[in-house]
Amino acid sequence: METVTTHSLPPDIVEFIEACKQQEHSDSYLIAVLHRIQGQFGWLSEDHMNEVAQRLQVPSATVSGVATFYHFFRLKPRGKHAVSVCLGTACFVKGADRVLSAFESELGISLGETTQDGLFSIEVSRCIGVCALAPVVTINEKTYSRVTPTQVPEMIRAEAEKG
Amino acid sequence: MASITSAYGALLEKALKEYDESGAARKVIIQVGSATCEITAGADRVRAEFDKLIIASGRDDILLKQVGCTGRCAREPVVGVFVPGQIPAKYEQVTEEKVHSIFQSHILKGQPVTELILDKKSNRLYDHLVTICSSSQCCGDKGSALEARLLKAIEAQGVPSESVGIMHSGCMGLCDSASDPDQRVMMVFPEKVIYRFKTDAELAEIVTSQLKENTILTKYVTHTDRVLEEFFKQYGDVSFFNRQTRLTLRNSGLIDPESLTDYMLKDGYKALPWILKEKTPEWVIEEVTRSGLRGRGGGGFPTGVKWKNTTLNDDPIRYVVCNADEGDPGAFMDRSALEGDPFTIIEGMTLGGYAVGAHKGFIYVRAEYPLAIERLENAIEVTRENHLLGKNILNSGFDFDLEIRLGAGAFVCGEETALLHSIEGKRGQPRIRPPYPSQSGLWGHPTMINNVETWANIAAILLFGADWYARFGTEQSKGTKVFALAGKVKNTGLVEVPMGTSLREIIFDIGGGLEEGRTLKSVQTGGPSGGCIPASKVDTPVDYEHLKALGSIMGSGGMIVLDDEDCMVATARFFVEFTQSESCGKCVPCREGTLRMLEILDKITMGQAELADLDRLERLARLVKHTSLCGLGQSAPNPVLSALENFREEFEAHITERRCPAHKCRQLLQYSVDADKCVGCTLCARRCPVSCISGERRGVHVIDADKCIKCGECFNACKFGAVLQK
Ligand SMILES: Cc1cc2nc3c(=O)[nH]c(=O)nc-3n(C[C@H](O)[C@H](O)[C@H](O)COP(=O)(O)O)c2cc1C
Ligand code: SF4
Ligand code: SF4
Ligand code: SF4
Ligand code: FES
Q: Which residues span the domain enclosing A151?
């Protein structure tokens, strides 16, 4: 067996991986493990993925193959204030593209980028199921509904004040 | 060892005792929604505020309850107040401040706060509210005839007309119009009784006794299915709700989704013990087949047939799966069902496991739905603790357990073979069928996969019978369908109607139509796999066959209303961009074809296309449709083909006139200020998110076109018509 060289995963996740290995079809828990890591760290680092491969005993190509296939997994860290603009149908129809432009222009970054100071990043989501209150934007855990482009500068200011 | 009956009996007794001890039957009940959308709208704060006031008041006859989604999303948070003996009241868009006035006036003094009532329908509250059936499928326009008869009777019997409110409702599941076309039904609040009658003489008798003398006239009282009656009793006072027929969402908004007791008191877990004890798996499959239920995930495959197919093998290991991936971006039926009534999915899947001899099931939920996941986890734990899941369920000897698996944001994983790969921990790429999952699914074993809404029907079908279920809907499409109504319609939210209900009824009668001044252009159903139905076809009944004939599909239930400000080219482009980015890349037609389609659509929306591009687009779309490997690619061209067929002139305007008639395509838009009209009110400058409008107070304003992001806020803001949008 290969030895684990980098020990960057916290004990609870290591424990979870061990528990998965006791289950039937243990390799089927790969996605669940990645969810846990992203839940704690906000993204999946190369080191983390390598450690998962070693501990779960699956090829690292499989781990990175899965991580890159699913849009939900982030392979680079996002900003401290992660702006996510919903571009689902209901939000699009209610002008979400214009809201997105307002964020891009106010923050001076494009979709998928993070500001230099690491404070803000912009990503899109594809429907979070709150379509009836479209357009919807989430910043970290908070959901804003019926957002207009005009509100964007103020939303950013309020977030930035939180530090 | 205890029998199934006594094991279930003990559980039910526990539930009844809990209910009794809560005193709910005698108390004032305040219900606050607790689904994702409601929480977004502030329901948590509203609940906390009520809680504070209840404690401060020192009253012990007030019960605060969390319930699932009622579906009235546009008006959330919605609060229901149920005072014994009163017409139930629903309040809309409740804030912490409104909580205080509702509590002071309604809860403490029994005076409803009329101006906050949902839909502001009543500016005064009636002594009685009568709802009469006007379902297009049974009673139809007889509803208005009945209203006239009722009004006449009210007048003739000397009942003050302002004391009675009359509303029209959807199918209450009561009339046997086929066997007796003269029969009529109506429900009266606050007594919550349903009357069945025929003649004007009988109607007069009811009016006198019930509406004038306040005495229930038992000889004409009837009951409908408990399922519908429960819902009508709590929500029949609101037209948005009483026009619907709630079978799938029968408990959403009625029960606390975290309480097994609540579920059991609504006939939950009644089907399971009875069937484990008295019925064979074959009987279950037969019953589901007879009900006519078809898959609600989009394809509409007969559910009973799929179940049967799963058993046509000798494999001792079989699985059942619930598809809760809900990938259509703009649909939220499954989320709401899971958040509002998770137990029924678990009971349904357990029954499905019994029917096909599976001992293990998986619920595949998209990770974007944390609350649905939490509610499911809770429900699985509680049912396990109560021996409704796990080894030897209710001492029946039947083992069945469930596991939740999370998706990770890939639309293609809603496709069944991709979903199975994903559960196995792999990249979610589809494979060629056959073999179908029912032949070879998870780890090569027969796997029965159904959508959330399909599963949500199972317990009710088995408990109340296939015949009962088959009464709803049309010949080919039985039962009801839940739609997530969104876009340019007033009452965005969840709507459940019998199959065969027209688009018009859904959008105008229930959905409340469009905003003032806007006109309906198109209805998009089926999401990225569906099509754009033109406004001229709005009388089409909604069922699998009719939608298909219009070049759309039923899909999972997303329904987006588009108005004259929506551009059909942009809409088609939106869907192609979506499917293109979600294409798994396994087969060339889909991977390359959608990319080429997107390029052409980009050119059109930027005003750089030529007419020949339209033919290219159409040819390409047909090619992708016919040669792609899985449903994603096969259906991706639908939005384009249907838009080309129904709205070709809009495409042509973009090409020949370089103009977007709906002012939606931003590359073809310019904003400027008409110096003659501008009065210098500065509003536009204050609204502009990128501060690209300059001008002095009372001076003419100017837009810096280079910085403008074309968001349209200035155009919407200017009250003087000075901002030009070209
Ligand atoms: C691209 C694509 C996406 C799909 N997405 C979903 C989905 O989100 N939910 C769902 O239940 N079915 C979805 N389906 C349909 C499933 O493949 C499958 O037919 C369904 O889950 C079967 O359940 P039913 O018979 O109860 O409808 C999708 C199909 C395709 C081709
Ligand atoms: S049609 Fe598209 S999503 Fe389906 S297998 Fe081919 S590339 Fe993948
Ligand atoms: S809102 Fe209209 S009138 Fe007022 S400054 Fe702007 S363009 Fe002029
Ligand atoms: S369209 Fe938007 S960005 Fe452009 S000037 Fe008007 S408000 Fe500013
Ligand atoms: S489309 Fe944005 S929340 Fe559904």
A: 81-161
